[in-house]
Design brief:
The protein has 375 residues and is an alpha+beta fold. It folds into 4 domains: 42-53 and 300-374, conserved putative lor/sdh protein from methanococcus maripaludis s2 fold (Beta Barrel), CATH 2.40.420; 55-64 and 222-298, Beta Barrel (Elongation Factor Tu (Ef-tu), domain 3), CATH 2.40.30.170; 67-101 and 188-219, RNA polymerase II/Efflux pump adaptor protein, barrel-sandwich hybrid domain (OB fold (Dihydrolipoamide Acetyltransferase, E2P)), CATH 2.40.50; 104-186, no CATH class. Helix content is 26%, strand content 36%. The chain is built from 6 helices and 22 strands. It has helices at 2-27, 103-130, 132-143, 160-168, 171-186, 367-374, and strands at residues 40-42, 44-46, 50-64, 67-71, 76-79, 90-91, 96-100, 189-191, 196-201, 208-209, 214-219, 224-231, 243-248, 254-266, 272-279, 289-306, 315-320, 323-328, 330-334, 338-342, 349-351, 364-366. The protein has a 6-stranded antiparallel β-barrel with strand order 3-12-15-14-13-16. The longest helix has 28 residues, at 103-130. It is elongated and about 180 Å long. It starts with a helix and ends with a helix. The model is unreliable at 369-375 (pLDDT under 50).
Length: 375
């Protein structure tokens, strides 16, 4: 009996092994499921050619349009004035910036003026006798001669005899010597050439000032200029008087300026052209760093797209019947992030965002079509 049971168990094991092996063999012949083809969704735009304003980015530091470096042309002690000579001090037009002690020089000027007066007075008797017709005008000149005021201009000589007589007595040379001394005397007082502010002061009251010494810097804080260097490509695009938008680095403040000047030559080293942008604002300060966007010109029948949509060989992707294709374009201007294109027909559907792994012939689904299908 035991042998019969073992025999039946052996038969069952053999049969089970047979069917198991057959099942494994059949499983190898099963076809793998075909993966579902994925159609990428893309963002598109429809081309509508318009006039595109070409904007050239630039940046630079502000410099006062009117600025003066103050230098001494005479020597002396710096005398205290109505206002302290300190950075940030404001002055009105014509107000004295620096007064240098001119006591000694003033005395020599007065001495020369006195000598001139005496020279003219010495010839008056001769004029009364030899030139009675010109005596009155020279007498009037003497009467109006004031040593405390600027020397008046000599009377106009009406004849050669009078000219020879006056010149021969050395009066003309003495007069111009006095005027020269008076001009130098005026340099002991340095006055503000315009209403402005002192930005640098290199001397203090009581210090000895030497001839040729720099004293400070003075600017007009109402008008500034920003110098920008642009590629020579834009030389023909820049126009004087063109409005320019400027902003600070944080883009929290915006200003309006104009192109005041454009250099007539191109830098041979950098191949750039220099333009100057004039801007006025009470809150601007010299040395501020600003960014500018210059409106160079308008390009007609063009569009502006992101630079990352451009392919090598001046081509871009278009969508035709849900299939990607490539067309040639004509780029006319490149910026850091944008490119202006021409020769694209109106109504052409182009990609608005780049598609990784895109190729001509790739099947895609525009984002707008997906929204329609979903609805």
């Amino acid at each position: 009996m035991r042998k019969i049971i073992l025999f039946l168990l052996g038969v069952l094991v053999i049969i089970g092994a047979y069917f198991a092996s057959k099942s494994i063999a059949n499983s190898k012949n099963r076809k793998r499921p075909t993966p579902e083809k994925v159609v990428k969704t893309v963002f598109t735009d429809t081309v509508q050619n318009t006039n595109v304003q070409i904007v050239i980015p630039a940046n630079g530091n502000l410099v006062a349009k009117r600025r003066v470096e103050l230098f001494a042309e005479v020597q002396g002690v710096f005398k205290r004035g109505a206002k302290l000579f300190r950075p940030g001090q404001k002055y009105s037009n014509g107000q004295t910036l620096i007064r240098i002690d001119a006591s000694e020089y003033y005395a020599s000027v007065q001495s020369s003026k006195s000598n001139l007066y005496n020279s003219i007075a010495a010839i008056m008797p001769d004029l009364r006798l030899d030139f009675p017709e010109v005596f009155d005008k020279w007498q009037s000149y003497l009467n109006g001669f004031d040593l405390s005021k600027s020397t008046p201009e000599l009377p106009k000589m009406t004849s050669d005899k009078e000219n020879y007589f006056i010149t021969g007595r050395g009066i003309v040379s003495n007069y111009y010597n006095v005027k020269n001394l008076e001009q130098r005397l005026a340099k002991y007082n340095i006055k503000a050439p315009f209403t402005g502010i002192l930005t640098e002061a290199l001397v203090t009251e009581g210090s000895l000032i030497r001839n040729g010494q720099k004293l400070g810097e003075y600017i007009d804080p109402s008008v500034y200029e920003m110098e920008v260097a642009l590629s020579k490509t834009y030389a023909s695009l820049l126009k004087v008087g063109e409005e320019v938008k400027l902003n600070n680095l944080e883009k929290t403040e915006t200003y309006t300026g104009t192109v005041s000047r454009v250099n007539g030559s191109i830098d041979a080293t950098t191949q750039t052209i220099t333009a100057y942008i004039e801007v006025k604002s009470d809150i601007l300060k010299e040395g501020m760093y600003l960014e500018a966007n210059l409106n160079a010109k308008k390009e007609s029948d063009a569009i502006e797209v992101n630079r990352n949509l451009m392919l090598d060989g001046d081509q871009i992707f278009v969508v035709r019947d849900s299939i990607l294709d490539i067309i040639d374009v004509n780029p006319v201007y490149f910026s850091d992030t944008k490119v202006v294109l021409k020769d694209i027909p109106n109504g052409t559907i182009i990609l608005s965002k780049p598609v990784p792994g895109a190729y001509a012939g790739m099947k895609v689904k525009p984002f707008s079509d997906q929204n329609t299908n979903t609805n």
